[in-house]
Amino acid sequence: MAKGLLFVLSGPSGVGKGTVGNALREKLPELTYSVSATTRSPRMGEQDGVNYFFKSREQFLGMIERDELLEHAEYVGNYYGTPRDFVDQTLAQGKDIFLEIEVQGALKVKEKFPDGIFIFLLPPSLDELKDRIRGRGTETQATIDHRMSVAVDEMNLLRHYDYAVVNDEIDFACKRIESIIIAEHCKVHP
Ligand SMILES: Nc1nc2c(ncn2[C@@H]2O[C@H](COP(=O)(O)OP(=O)(O)O)[C@@H](O)[C@H]2O)c(=O)[nH]1
Ligand SMILES: Nc1ncnc2c1ncn2[C@@H]1O[C@H](COP(=O)(O)OP(=O)(O)O)[C@@H](O)[C@H]1O
User: Where's the Guanylate kinase-like domain (predicted)?
Assistant: First the structure.
């Protein structure tokens, strides 16, 4: 049986990864989405095991020690990581897996899965990015400033990605990502 393909979506905080990811889940229910572990507190409406596996710092460090994470990274004061077994099992079943993770983690995944397909979601502009983070209303001013400075550093790593998708309109961005998935399945593999 053919193995599934591994897709990674990254992009700065507030660019719309969550929004586009949710829209993709509706449009492409057959795609399997990795659920990350994090030490960040749940936001309003977030559910354990659905949006993230919410862990204490000790629990997270235990997962690292037991080598249960494919990659992990520290981002704006919290740990985030991708459970390894779920990714391996999904691919082994011939199904695609979709990871939404920040750039340091994405680069580590690239070392382990050089054939993965890496997609970077870009804001139409930096001003629009700041407005979106602010508009979401989940962050303090200090966290917004921190996330904006990380965003600029992250965008400098765009060259490591295979595709750049501008999130101007949610529907257009989804269409572009769907097109990438379709095209990757049509590729002639050696
Ligand atoms: N390396 C890594 N990054 C992750 C993982 N899960 C989520 N992230 C990233 O961590 C960053 C912060 O996520 P979050 O706190 O949910 O905020 P938001 O994505 O900006 O709404 C985002 O860039 C996520 O894509 C993971 O398993 N590994
Ligand atoms: N294409 C878009 N146009 C306008 N606003 C958007 C778009 N995509 C996302 N947003 C808004 O931007 C904010 C940040 O989106 P979110 O999905 O939480 O970003 P991320 O997961 O990348 O941090 C949210 O308030 C969301 O509604």
Answer: 4-182
